[in-house]
Amino acid sequence: IQGHVYDLDYARCLSKIGIYLLKNGKKEEALFYLNSAKLMFETLQFENIKPFFENQFSYALLLAELEQKEVALNEFFKLEPHINNFNPFQKAVFYYNLAKLEYSMRVFHSAIYYAQKSRSILFEENLTNHDLNFSILNLLGAGEFQLKNFNLAQGIWEEIVSAKSLLPIENKIYYRNALFNLSKVFIIKESKDISESYYKQYTRITPYSEIVSLDSNFELIVEGYLHPEFFIWPNADEFSELESNIIKSYTGRYVFSGQE
Under a CB-based contact definition with an 8 Å cutoff, are residues 6 and 43 in contact? Predict the structure, then answer.
């Protein structure tokens, strides 16, 4: 209305619309808005502010999801020197996604490197009981499997499965993916009984329409890309969602706000 089309706030609005469309699964529409925002930020020479970097993050992820892998990788590498503009958790999400992209391009050594980098950030922030940590572990195991380090892969996925005794993760995607992947490992190791045991656990907790046949061409199952906007930012001074659920399971009368 005011004619201020080439304006910083207009660019930010375009970016936000793109992110909201992305959250609703409208990827092609989101690409138009995120790309338009990118071009406007660049035209206005606002390429060193946080809104531009956040737009770039979503833009790179969307390109990866649309299978424009080389372009997405280039955008990730352009963004990495500015990683300190993000908070530690955003950095961990960034490196997880870069690892996932490298894995999808079958550059397994790089995938493992970036996944470990992501996990080290979570350890520094005392966020080892966060969902992201288990998704990273699943990806790490897949990378080691592809490099034929089957014992390493097995140990990593068993770490996820054993965490069920401490945390309520049985309904999590990464938990059932780890069960499937372990089943694949024991096929390689020619331990049919153990493989079938893990696969039965996998099918028991997986929705019927999402069950992958053990005899299919699916080598492994890893989680998809993770958008930072899909997470509630964790506070290291508070319990993670998984930790909260554990304590609530002890007594329904536990009120967090009333405790020391």
Answer: yes
Q: How many CB atoms lie within 10 A of CB 241?
A: 15
| Each residue's pLDDT tens digit, 78-112 | 999 999 989 899 999 999 999 999 999 999 999 99
Q: Identify the residue whose tokens are 């405790």.
A: 259
Question: Rounded to an integer, what distance in angstroms lies between the CA atom of residue 61 and that of residue 242?
Answer: 26
Question: How many other CB atoms are there within 10 angstroms of residue 181's CB atom?
Answer: 25
Q: Give this prediction's pTM.
A: 0.87
Nearest to 161 by CA among 172, 175, 182, 151: 175
Cβ(224)–Cβ(147) below 8 Å: no
Cα–Cα dist 85/91, whole Å? 9
Q: Which amino acid is at 139?
A: L
Q: Scanning the structure block, which residue is given the tokens 């992110």?
A: 19
- The amino acid that residue 85 corresponds to is N
